Each structure stands twice: as structure tokens, then as C-alpha cells.
């Protein structure tokens, strides 16, 4: 099956929707407080905690910059990993504020990206100017972080990689720039491989199993990511999960738990309508834990499966930087399918 633009747009935009949906409750660790403040039902607007736009976090920002790096890698035939870390260091510069715009391509020139989006401090430190010049290894890791950001930013690999195995290996390797724990790296590889199948129209259950093949080869039997996937499948088989079931899989501050919660909510979606999407997405964020991450994971999976049309219009129009997300999705698709796009937006890195 071939890559589908409708699914690509759905995955990128719905990942950002989930990120923005979870951001306001990211720091609320007790579910009953979430329900007391915002209710048990999903909000009618994405900007439910204040005025529009509904802001994303560093999860979405890093997706955009990884996409920028991969497009330039393809255009200029540069080393993939070097291009990606160069793009991520451009992202790191955005976290220093609007007075330091670094005009290196169209994305890094957009002033809307230049404010802090709740980044992981370990990721920032790994991408500082004095960070590693060669990709770290498991024997010599950059840190011990098992955080989920390397996983959520792995989505663009799913789009540009020719094969599922390439998507897994590329995301797995490049996660090491910022996350030294094997859990973070394996989760990134699996997530990229899973989305690779979904974006090409492979049935969800089949995509889950196909992505497990390179995972099994990398972590062996009964590895931590495999166990989390099995837990997600077991809980989802019983229908829409309770908050208690989701929180039993972890607080999503580690990549394996974030993957399990997002996957479980996507697998247990009640139907393919906007109603089913909204309910599944609210379950994915309305729990004590890293809600922006689990929302991004569930959103990417459901957006890839159902397309962007499943998002209620009031949610979509509230989303921050919608035009940037749309352009990135289309340029990634064009890169992956050898279609024309404005290549001048992606000069060689300076």
C-alpha cells in the first residue's frame, strides 16, 4: 500500500491536537482535580482553559524540526542523523526566546516558535552548543533519560522512510542524541514503525504486530516495550479503559508508559466518527500523568487511521500554528513521494 496524504495530515495535525488538549492538565496529578476543574466530558473547544489559540508543547515543536531535518537530508543528500540533530539544535535555540531568531530555513525563521513550550530539561542540555558532535551510543549515552519526547518526535520518520524497518532503525538511532535509556530509544523505533504501517493503510491490528518484529529483534522476548504493548492490548480488549486502568500502566513520564496509554486509547476508540475521536482523546489526556504526551500519541495514531476530517472544526480552528503543521505535512509527503514543493524553503544547514 502507498503513503496517503489524507492520513499524513491526519497524523501530524491530530498529534498536535492531542498535545494541545493535554497541555493544560499536564501538571494536575490527581484525576478528580481534573474532573473538578474541567469536567468529565470532553471540552467543546480545544482552547478550553483560556483564550485561543490552544498552545502545543515541545512535543509538537520537535516533530516539526525533525521533519525539517529529514526533508533537508533528502534534498541535499546529507547524513540523516547529522541533519536531524542540526534541526533539533535549531529547536533548542527557539527555547531561548524571541530576541534570538536564527534564520536557518523557513521554520526556524518563524517567530511563533520562539517561546518555551514546557521542554524536558535533559533534552535541552543534550542539544546545547557544547553537546556531543557524534551520535551517542548505549555504551556511552548522553544521559539516562527515559522520557517520551524522542518517541513523539519520531512521527516524521514514519512518513519519509521507505520501509518499516528503516523507520524503526532511524528513529531508534536518532533518539540517542537526547535520550540515553534504551526504553526511550526502543519506544521511538516502535512508534515510528507502527505509524509507518498506519499511514499506508495497513489495518491497525496488523500494523501493531508488524512493528513488533523489529522491536523483538532489538529488545528480545519479554522486553519493557513489548510488555507495555501487551498490557495496552489486554486493557483495550475490554473496551474503553477506565482512568484507573490507564494510570496502572504508569504516569507517562517514561516513554514505555506513554506509548501504552496512547496506544490503548487509540485501540479502544468506540467508532470512527468525530464523537468517537473526541471521547478517545479525552480519555487519553484526562488522567494523572504526562497528558500532553499521551494525547499526542493517541492523536497521531487516530489521525493516521481516520484522517484529519474526524477532528471537530471548533477544535481544529483553535489549534496553534495550524498553517505550519499543514505545510510540514504536505512537504513531508512531497519529499516521500518525489512530488514538487518549494525546495528553497529548505536550504543546506548553516
Low-confidence stretches: none
- Give the CATH level 1 class: Mainly Alpha
- CATH topology: the name is ADP-ribosylglycohydrolase fold
Mean pLDDT: 95
From N to C, what is the helix and strand string? Answer: HHHHHHHHHHHHHHHHH
User: Structural class given helices, strands, pairing?
Assistant: mainly alpha
**Architecture, CATH level 2?**
Orthogonal Bundle
What is the domain total for the residues? 1
Tally the beta strands.
0
Measured as a percent range, the helix fraction is 55-70%
Notes on the structure:
The structure is a single chain. 58% of the residues lie in helices and 0% in strands. The chain is mainly α. The protein has one domain: Orthogonal Bundle (ADP-ribosylglycohydrolase fold). The protein starts with a helix and ends in a 13-residue tail after the last helix.
